[in-house]
Amino acid sequence: MPTHRSDPHPDVQKTLDTLLPTLRDLPRDTIRDPLIPVAKMVAEAHALALVATKYSNQLEAVGVARKLHQSLDLRAQAASAAQARLTMVRGRKRSTEELDQEARGQELRATLVAAGRYATRTNEKAQAALDHIQEGTGLDDLVQDLKELGLFCTTYAADLERIGEQPKALKKECSALADTLQTAVVNRRAGDDEEAQALELRNRAASFLWDAMGEVRSAGAYAFRNDAEVLPLFRSAYRQAHRGPRPGTPDAPVTPNPTG
Questions:
Q1: Dihedral, CA of residue 147, residue 152, residue 155 and residue 156, to nearest 10
Q2: Helix (H, G, I), strand (E, B) or coil at 184
Q3: Which of 124, 153, 195, 241 has its Cβ near the most Cβ atoms within 10 Å?
């Protein structure tokens, strides 16, 4: 598969191309949507690779093949390149109207998060909800964030009113933008063969990486089950911080997400 001018960095792209035969041969029942955002997964994989190298003897003693844990970096590069390719394919097909709506959604999200931070500054539960909302980085996350911010406006309406905001109007705008963006995304992606292929490749690369990470983490959890200092190094920091993942996002135990 050739490298295009707007594709990921050539070295990373080369890694993806090298792994293509392996990715295409993966059994379909092992392929799933990413369980956490791919950028987070890739970062955690590189960190896990360092940990696995440091404790390779202990991991290999409980049955982890050296070849497996040494493949983490390459698998992570492939997943990163596949995600970048998917983003590129999606991005070049987006209308000016959709881009303008997304920009307004990002602006509204930033405004509401700032207002919410101030209005509920002594409320730990509200602050935690805003922390969760700010984790989103893509268009699908923006849609979900706007929906959650609409609920936030209802839940903390009195707090927002006290600082001069209009929570009913803000909730209405959040809901309208979320619905408009989600409809535009679903309509654009439906029947798009190029995007479907890019999505399939991204999911294969992410699954290939996640499965290796799972094996290494399981072995590490067993090998260091009595070591309180080393054990946390084999856990996903992202999943520890998101024990109650919201449905329809990359961090949920996934059922197919029409906007994913």
A1: -160
A2: helix
A3: 153
**165 vs 178: CA distance, rounded Å:** 20
For residues 96-101, average pLDDT: 83
pLDDT of 254 higher than 50: no
Q: What is the pLDDT of residue 257?
A: 36
- Looking at the predicted structure, is the pLDDT value of residue 112 above 50? yes
What is the torsional sign of CA 205, 206, 207, 209? positive
Assign 171 to helix, strand or coil: helix
Neighbours of 112 (CB within 10 A): 27
Cα dihedral: 97, 103, 106, 108 (round 10): -80
Q: Where are the alpha helices (DSSP H) in the chain?
A: 10-24, 38-54, 56-61, 66-70, 72-91, 96-119, 124-133, 139-155, 157-162, 167-189, 193-223, 237-241
Task: Name the pLDDT band for 135 (thresholds 50, 70, 90).
Answer: low
The DSSP letter of residue 236 is: -
Q: Residue 75: what residue type?
A: R
Query: So what's the pLDDT on residue 98?
Result: 80
Quote the CA–CA distance of 101 and 180 in Å, as a whole number: 8
Rg of the chain, C-alpha, whole Å? 21
**What number of CA atoms fall less than 13 Å from residue 20's CA on the CB side?**
12
What pTM was computed for the model? 0.65
Tokens 């999606």 -> residue: 90
Mean predicted confidence (pLDDT) in 120-129: 93
Q: Are 66 and 196 in contact (CB under 8 A)?
A: no
Type of residue at 214: G
